């Protein structure tokens, strides 16, 4: 399968875990990574993404950076770059929308997976014909993209009817509204409550300390406590489907309100749906999340199983 990843590396460590899973999926399932776009402003984000590829002796696909969008703090890139001696070359990367448009012209059908604020995907949808393609962004997505998979939103209300306004949506509400309400192809999202308390990263941190990019980001950002797994769980669904991990709730019409809260109105013709964690018989939700977390951790250890045994071009 062909996939495009849009990630806000720099804000939370789970993007790096998602990249580790993506790299394993490339090696194991032959997933073709068409492009990666960065939805965070830290200049060290793309060098960290490159480092993840370098550690696996994999070539970095075309990358694009965000134009406009939110300014979020860098939570671990500077520290990680210092520890691993990663340089920040003075490269100006092309705008994400251009890279996304180009990637779509080079595929028959792909999945777009976005695990950060939706600024770049919205810019793609709003793009007009240009030197890359005579089609608008909407037309390109309609013809070349099978579905858009997001980590965004929240649908579980507490006993007082309060609904969490999820961070990726809140960072750029207009962009999230554009993608969730106007996408010409199905949108499936993994919401906040599905990835919360699905803790991963402890095994890789315990085994490797500050030896590689994944373990260093986790040790810098979360010590040895691991982290919720919104982003890697989203990517597992985007690449492997529901497995015995997820149920799809929908279809319906998606809506984003002015506070960044997300809603689904059931409608058989709707293009929007969201994931919930699938419990096997006798399992609690915590048990089911632990099962998904163990799979993600296993993938991360498998990715690095040969690390250090061969020359690494870093
Ligand atoms: Ca993210």
Sheet bearing the most strands, described? Answer: 9 strands, mixed
Overall number of structural domains: 1
What is the top-level CATH class? Alpha Beta
Strand and helix order: EHEHEHHEHHEHHEHHHHEEEH
Structural class by SSE content:
alpha/beta
CATH superfamily: Ribonucleoside hydrolase-like
Over the alpha carbons, how many angstroms does the gyration radius reach? 18 Å
Cα distance spanning the termini: 28 Å
Shape: globular
Strand order of the largest sheet: 3-2-1-4-5-6-9-7-8
**Which strand-content bin applies to the residues?**
15-25%
**CATH-scheme architecture:** Alpha-Beta Complex
Which regions have little confidence, pLDDT < 50, spanning 5+ residues?
none
Number of H/I helices: 13
Number of DSSP strand runs: 9
Chain oligomer state: single chain
Quick synopsis:
The chain is of the alpha/beta class. Helices cover 40% and strands 17% of the residues.
Please describe the structure with a list of short key phrases separated by commas or semicolons.
314 residues; 9-stranded mixed β-sheet; alpha/beta; single chain; Inosine-uridine Nucleoside N-ribohydrolase, Chain A; 13 helices
Describe the structure.
- The model has no long low-confidence stretch (mean pLDDT 96).
- By secondary structure, the protein is α/β, with parallel strands linked by helices.
- It has a single domain (2-303), classed as Inosine-uridine Nucleoside N-ribohydrolase, Chain A.
- Helix 1 packs parallel to helix 12 (230-240), helix 1 packs across helix 13 and helix 5 (119-126) crosses helix 6 (137-144).
- The protein contains 13 helices and nine strands.
- It has helices at residues 14-29, 45-55, 77-84, 96-105, 119-126, 137-144, 167-171, 173-182, 192-195, 202-208, 213-222, 230-240, 285-303, and strands at 2-7, 32-38, 63-65, 110-114, 145-151, 187-190, 246-256, 262-266, 272-277.
- The protein has a nine-stranded mixed beta sheet with strand order 3-2-1-4-5-6-9-7-8, with helices on both faces.
- Bound molecules: calcium ion.
């Amino acid at each position: 399968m062909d996939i495009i990843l849009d990630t806000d590396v720099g804000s939370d460590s789970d993007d790096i875990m998602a990249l580790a899973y993506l790299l394993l999926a490339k090696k194991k399932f032959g997933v073709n990574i068409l492009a990666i776009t960065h939805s965070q402003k830290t200049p060290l984000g793309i060098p960290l993404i490159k480092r993840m590829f370098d550690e696996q002796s994999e070539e970095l696909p075309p990358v694009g950076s965000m134009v406009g969008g939110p300014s979020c703090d860098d939570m671990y890139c500077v520290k990680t770059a210092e520890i691993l001696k990663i340089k920040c070359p003075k490269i100006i990367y092309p705008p994400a929308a251009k890279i996304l448009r180009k990637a779509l012209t080079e595929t028959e059908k792909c999945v777009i997976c976005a695990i950060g604020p939706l600024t770049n995907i919205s810019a793609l949808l709003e793009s007009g014909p240009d030197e890359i393609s005579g089609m608008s962004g909407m037309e390109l997505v309609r013809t070349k993209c099978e579905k858009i998979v997001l980590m965004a939103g929240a649908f579980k209300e507490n006993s007082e009817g309060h609904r969490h306004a999820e961070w990726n949506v809140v960072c750029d509400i207009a962009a999230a509204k554009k993608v969730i309400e106007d996408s010409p192809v199905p949108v499936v999202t993994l919401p906040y409550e599905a990835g919360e308390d699905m803790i991963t990263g402890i095994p890789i941190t315990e085994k490797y300390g500050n030896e590689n990019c994944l373990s260093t980001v986790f040790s810098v950002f979360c010590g040895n406590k691991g982290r919720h797994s919104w982003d890697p769980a989203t990517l597992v669904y985007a690449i492997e489907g529901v497995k015995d991990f997820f149920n799809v709730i929908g279809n319906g019409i998606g809506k984003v309100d002015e506070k960044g809260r997300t809603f689904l109105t059931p409608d058989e013709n709707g293009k929007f749906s969201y994931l919930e964690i699938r419990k096997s018989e006798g399992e609690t939700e915590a048990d089911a999340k632990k099962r998904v977390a163990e799979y993600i951790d296993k993938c991360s250890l498998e990715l690095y199983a040969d690390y250090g045994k061969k020359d690494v071009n870093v």
